[in-house]
Design brief:
Length: about 270
C-alpha cells in the first residue's frame, strides 16, 4: 500500500477517518492524500467557464486551501508524507475519479450512515463511493478513530467468483496484522445444512494457503442481520466484505448488503469490489 486517499469536509467524522488512515499509513509507510471537494450546485458548475472564476468560488477555494494546509500539519500526521488536492464538483464522483487518477490503494472516509427516506433516495457520500469505487473503501463509523484488527469479520458466500476480492481482503488484513474470522450467513431463503456449508467454505479457503483461521456459520433472517448480530457476538473490531456495487434500478430491486451495512452498522467497514 503506497497511497491512501482521505476525503475531508473538515468535520469531526472526517478527522476521525484521517486519524485512522494515519495509523494504517504508518504500518505500510504510505502517503496520505488529503482531498477536499467544494460541492457546488449543478447550476453554479454550469456557470463556470474555463479560465474564469466567480468571486464567491474564489473565496471558498482560498478558504478551503488554507484549511487543507492546516489539516496536513495536524500532529496526527507527524512524520508522514502528506499531499493535498482541492476539487470543484460533486463529492462522490470526484472521489472515485481522483482515486483512479492518483493510483490510490485505499480510500478512508468518515460516515454517519443514513436511514429511512434519505437512505433510499439520497444516500450518504460514503455509500455512493462504496457503490462506484473499484478501489477498497474503509468507512470509519462513530468515534472509532483508531482501527483495530484483532477481530475482523470477513463475510462471504465462498463462491468462486469472489476469489479475487477475497484475496485482496486477506492481503489487506495481513498487511495490517488483522485476524480474520470468516463467516457464512444461513438464511431461510438460501439455507444450507451445516456439513454442506462447512465443506463449501473450507474447500474455498484452501486455495489461499492460510496458516490458520476461524470459520463460523450463523443462522438469521437475512444476511445483513446475520453479519451485524455475529459481529456483536464476538465484539468484532471491523467488518470486511466484497461488494457488487449495484447501480440504478437493480439497486432498488436487490439492494446492496455492503451499503446497508455501512448505513446500519456501528462498526467500521472495509469493502472490496467483486
Amino acid at each position: 500500500m503506497k497511497k491512501i486517499l482521505v476525503p475531508t469536509d473538515f468535520s469531526d467524522q472526517a478527522f476521525n477517518a484521517l486519524k485512522a488512515a494515519a495509523g494504517i499509513a504508518r504500518k505500510s509507510n504510505a502517503e496520505i492524500v488529503l482531498l477536499h471537494i467544494i460541492d457546488l450546485p449543478q447550476e453554479t458548475m454550469d456557470m463556470i467557464k474555463p479560465g474564469y472564476d466567480l468571486p464567491e468560488i474564489m473565496f471558498f477555494k482560498e478558504s478551503a486551501e488554507a484549511r487543507l494546509t492546516q489539516t496536513s500539519f495536524s500532529p496526527e500526521l507527524s512524520g508522514l508524507t502528506v499531499s493535498q488536492i482541492l476539487k470543484l464538483g460533486r463529492t462522490f464522483s470526484e472521489v472515485t475519479e481522483v482515486a483512479k487518477a492518483n493510483n490510490i490503494d485505499l480510500i478512508v472516509m468518515g460516515s454517519h450512515g443514513a436511514s429511512g427516506f434519505k437512505e433510499l433516495f439520497i444516500g450518504s457520500n460514503t455509500e455512493k463511493v462504496i457503490r462506484t469505487s473499484e478501489i477498497p473503501v474503509l468507512a470509519i463509523k462513530g468515534n472509532n478513530d483508531e482501527i483495530k484488527f484483532d477481530k475482523v469479520v470477513v463475510a462471504s458466500d465462498f463462491t468462486e467468483d469472489t476469489g479475487e476480492s477475497f484475496l485482496r481482503i486477506i492481503n489487506f488484513l495481513k498487511a495490517n496484522g488483522g485476524t480474520p474470522h470468516f463467516l457464512m450467513v444461513n438464511t431461510p431463503n438460501n439455507f444450507k445444512p451445516t456439513h454442506v456449508a462447512e465443506e463449501m467454505a473450507h474447500n474455498f479457503l484452501k486455495q489461499f494457503e492460510l496458516d490458520g483461521y476461524e470459520f463460523s456459520i450463523y443462522n438469521d433472517l437475512d444476511i445483513e442481520k446475520g453479519i451485524l448480530n455475529f459481529a456483536d457476538r464476538i465484539n468484532a473490531d471491523l467488518i470486511a466484505m466484497g461488494t457488487h456495487g449495484r447501480k440504478g434500478f437493480a439497486r432498488f430491486l436487490n439492494g446492496s448488503i455492503s451499503e446497508d451495512l455501512m448505513n446500519h452498522s456501528p462498526r467500521s467497514i472495509v469493502t472490496f469490489k467483486l
